[in-house]
Amino acid sequence: MPTENETRRRRMYFYPGFQPSFVWGLGGAVLAAGLATVFSMVILLLVHGRSIVPDVLPILIGFHIVVVLSLLLIVYWVALFVSHRMGGPLYRMEMAFKGMAQGRLDQRVNLRRGDQLQREAEALNQGVGSLRERLEDLRDQVKQLEMVRDPQEARDRASLLGRRMDDLFVF
User: Fold this and answer.
1) Within 10 A of 141 (CB to CB), how many other CB atoms are there?
2) How far does the chain reach from its first CA to its final CA, in angstroms?
3) CA dist list (Å): 29 to 13, 22, 43
4) Own/partner pairs, 13-18, CB within 8 angstroms, 24+ separation
5) pLDDT tens digits, 43-56
6) Region of 66 on the Ramachandran plot (φ > 0 left; ψ -120 to 50 alpha; else beta)
7) Is residue 136 a contact partner of residue 168, using CB atoms and an 8 Å limit?
8) Which is higher by pLDDT, 114 or 70?
9) With a threshold of 0.70, does the pTM exceed it?
10) Can you give the residue ranges of every domain in the chain?
11) Cα-atom radius of gyration of the chain, to the nearest Å?
């Protein structure tokens, strides 16, 4: 049952590390596009009604093309960065889950420093470690049960072992 502290804890929608840099990067790209638009609007307003407009228009179009291509490169770089920081840990965790499905409880998810999902990987490692300890405890009890020669005592211990398994695992 969760403690009062855990139930009153606010959700964190903004995690330190990755999210601020991601948000600032995209915010900077949007700001650059906005400034480019404002800059070109100011130029158009300043030259409105003058004969210089036909000369300035190709420059503004070129300026917008450069800004759009720059923003596309920034978005591509951010997407590549995000995919590496998220995709790698997700792939490693997927492999760990597949190994667990095959009964392999001897592996850990090791992430590079700076990768996302560090807390989730550590929680997975703790869960696998706890499961391994429970299974080792049950294995020890089975070995003790195998050494019992009295049928009644063996049935009693087997029943106790079954209750212990029900306590350790929720099905």
Assistant:
1) 16
2) 18
3) 22, 11, 21
4) 17/114, 17/116, 18/85, 18/116
5) 777 766 666 656 66
6) alpha
7) no
8) 70
9) no
10) 15-107, 117-171
11) 31
- Is residue 160 within 8 A of residue 138, CB to CB? The reply is no
Q: What is the DSSP string of 75-136?
A: HHHHHHHHHHHHHHHHHHHHHHHHHHHTT--S------TT-S-HHHHHHHHHHHHHHHHHHH
Q: Looking up tokens 């700001």, which residue turns up?
A: 31
Dig out the tokens for 169 from the structure: 């695992």
Per DSSP, the three-state class of 1 is coil
Output the six-digit token pair for 19.
């999210």
Task: Report residue 165 as tokens.
Answer: 């398994």
Residue 9 pLDDT greater than 70, yes or no: no
Q: Which residues contact 47 (CB under 8 A, 6 or more apart)?
A: 53, 56
Here the tokens at position 54 are: 């036909």
Average pLDDT of span 14-43: 71
